[in-house]
Design a protein that fits this description.
There is one protein chain. This protein is α/β, with parallel strands linked by helices. It is 52% helix and 9% strand. It has 31 helices and nine strands. The protein has a five-stranded parallel β-sheet with strand order 2-3-4-1-5, sandwiched between helices. The chain has a four-stranded mixed β-sheet with strand order 7-8-6-9. Helix 6 (100-128) packs across helix 11 (243-255). It is globular and about 95 Å long.
Length: 647
């Protein structure tokens, strides 16, 4: 069997990088403006930032193919930098002991040195590999102009043959000096510090040096005639910056001039992305744009995901004509087809009743030949009509003219009906078809590829067949459940600071979400379906318990286990990530309606001494939130009988 092209790791650990550039997002990143890109882990931020790198564009055949096969294909020169925790753990901690007029300027100087070093290194490599060509005279003239702007390099002044690699090493040495001072927590007086590093205004070094670097690039034959040539400095994992560092970056962005622009990525939007050290001035547009990846890909994720899958498959099978489309492999969504299989194998009297009701509805003029008619009978429609007491309009009546609207209202309750029926029949919902795949990936390309990997493995077919033949529904379901199980089981190894607490929180929220989606009063579940957007109000005065809960939620959201929908002041609104729906048995579409929880609720669940006590606490909370009586058939026991949910 072909080795899966979907098995993937973090970008930096992959042996070979295959690119598919999401449009129009990538085009937007090319505009002459700084951009902060916000998205949880696995949404493609690192890949996008690497795609902006000139070195990657020159060396990677896949990326070069996406850029029309030439280098340079774009009117900018990009460099990629991954920020490290040194910036917050050492540098910010050291500089925070100084007045901001000193600490802020030194931090900004460090960032600008880092940027210039990265650009010099990239240009040097591209010159060495002959992707760029520049005369020796131009190279030496450029280095002299730069040295003239940097008093810290005065020992090199007057040297007429300084090559770019040597100048790059000088900037690296300057950077390493500052890092050493920070790591040693050197207690320098402001006067001593200013003698070692010139206290420039924030952004001044970049404003001096980047025009010189632009002139150098413009003098090459490759960039000749590109009058608006600019530099894109791409900062990955910028969330490591704390208040001082982030405010310095914002100020630097606000004061920067063409040709320098910054593209920084964050795992979530933060309160301090606007602040600067400039009186009454923020870093907001027109200087910089904040771009949430979820919003950027919301309308085009299907095309993006299928494009990523296609380029990976083409690379593996060496066939440029093969294309992956989820509907070909998985089929179009058909909830009634899933219900037909479930009802056919159920011995419950309810199953017989629903089959009869669907048969009766299928013979009505209202349903026959309508947009929802398929080979399967209208099971979910019959359930909605019956549960909500809806009267079917008769032909020739005023309501008949509005039948398409009434049909749409029934269709809105399709998923809720499916989940409620599965719950009442004591079976696990099945997950299959293209639309479910896209919804449970929750606009996370890493999860999407993991789900495809599981589908390919469970199907047992070669890649060409995978792209051209329909996978049976039961195999689709088993594969998607397994992918969700793998993700949940990875929690202890995911690098979370409190993995056991996070796993408990996730299990509690996942099980409660499943109960909210499928249990309780049937008519209520159908009228306000898919509740499970948890609304948590943190106390005004933080406590150890509330801080712990907040940290768990924010970190789980960063790692792609929760979706943080809103974080304003002390309010958090979040839901369980859709990719875990097949594991916990909730709606593949996620949750739509808010429900209030408290810090006390979550602390009580997390602090249980053992598994049985934990299950009992989750059961009680789920019942209360679902509006169910305290005593009754154990909900979680019912769910676990289906086999998808584990403690």
């Amino acid at each position: 069997m072909t080795v899966s092209p979907f098995a993937q790791d973090r970008f930096e650990y992959e042996h070979k990088h295959i690119y598919f550039l999401p449009q129009p997002l990538f085009t937007e990143l090319l505009i002459p403006k700084s951009i902060y890109l916000v998205g949880t882990r696995g949404t493609g931020k690192t890949t996008i930032l690497h795609a902006l790198s000139a070195k990657e564009q020159a060396a990677n055949p896949s990326l070069k193919g996406q850029l029309n096969g030439s280098f340079p294909a774009l009117d900018y020169f990009g460099v990629y930098l991954k920020l490290t925790k040194f910036l917050s753990a050492d540098l910010e901690a050291w500089l925070s002991t100084y007045d901001i007029s000193i600490g802020g300027k030194i931090f900004s100087f460090y960032l600008e040195v880092l940027f210039i070093e990265a650009v010099l290194d990239s240009i040097s490599e591209l010159l060495a590999s002959r992707h760029l060509n520049v005369s020796v005279a131009s190279e030496y003239a450029t280095t002299q102009r730069i040295i003239g702007h940097v008093t810290e390099l005065r020992q090199m002044a007057g040297q007429s043959n300084v090559a770019l690699p040597r100048l790059c090493s000088a900037f690296a040495h300057l950077r390493e000096q500052i890092e050493t001072w920070a790591q040693l927590k050197l207690a320098l007086t402001p006067e001593e510090l200013s003698r070692r590093v010139r206290l420039r205004p924030i952004g001044a070094l970049g404003r001096d040096v980047f025009p010189v670097l632009r002139d150098l690039c413009a003098s090459t034959g490759e960039f000749e005639g590109r009058d608006r040539l600019a530099f894109k400095v791409c900062l990955d994992e910028a969330e490591v910056l704390q208040d001082l560092g982030q405010t310095c970056l914002n100020t630097l962005v606000r004061l920067s001039e063409h040709p320098l622009f910054v593209v920084a990525s964050y795992v979530r939007e933060r309160d301090n992305l606007q602040a600067t050290y400039l009186p009454n001035v923020s870093a907001d547009s027109p200087d910089r744009r904040i771009k949430p990846l979820d919003e950027a890909l919301s309308g085009s994720f299907r095309d993006f995901a299928q494009g990523v899958a296609t380029v990976r498959i083409r690379d593996r099978v060496r066939n440029a004509d093969i294309t992956f489309t989820a509907e070909t492999t998985l089929g179009k969504l058909d909830i009634n087809r899933l219900l037909e299989r479930i009802l056919k194998h159920s011995e419950s009297p309810l199953a017989r009743e629903m089959q009869d009701a669907a048969e009766e509805l299928s013979r009505t003029e209202f349903y026959r030949g309508g947009p929802d008619s398929t080979q399967a009978k209208p099971y979910y429609e019959a359930h909605v009509v019956r549960s909500l007491g809806i009267e079917i309009p008769e032909k020739g009546t005023p309501r008949w003219k509005r039948r398409s609207q009434e049909s749409a209202e029934i269709r809105k309750r399709m998923v809720a009906s499916y989940l409620v029926l599965c719950s009442r029949l004591n079976v696990q919902p099945k997950y299959a078809f293209a639309e479910m795949l896209f919804d449970i990936s929750d606009r996370c390309i890493r999860d999407f590829l993991g789900q495809l990997d599981s589908l390919l493995s469970h199907s047992g077919v070669e890649l060409v067949q995978f792209c051209s033949e329909r996978i049976p529904v039961d195999i689709q379901n088993a594969a998607l459940v397994k992918a969700a199980e793998r993700k949940r089981d990875f929690v202890p190894r995911s690098g979370l600071s409190l993995p056991k607490d996070t796993a408990r929180l996730l299990d509690a929220l996942g099980k409660i979400t499943a109960v909210l989606h499928s249990s309780g009063d049937t008519s209520r579940s159908l009228r306000s379906s898919e509740r499970g957007r948890f609304c948590l109000d943190l106390p005004a005065e933080s406590s150890e318990a509330s801080s712990r809960i907040d940290e768990l939620i924010l970190e789980a959201a960063e790692r792609g286990y929760l979706q943080l929908l809103r974080s304003d002041g002390n309010r958090r609104i979040f839901r369980v990530h859709n990719s875990l729906a097949p594991f916990y048995s909730f709606s593949y579409r996620g949750s739509y309606y808010e429900i209030q929880v408290s810090v006390k609720d979550l602390v009580e669940v997390l602090n249980q001494p053992d598994h049985d006590a934990f299950e009992g606490a989750v059961e009680r909370l789920a019942r209360r939130l679902a509006g169910l009586p305290e005593n009754g058939f154990p909900l979680l026991e019912l769910m676990e009988q289906g086999g998808n949910v584990e403690g």
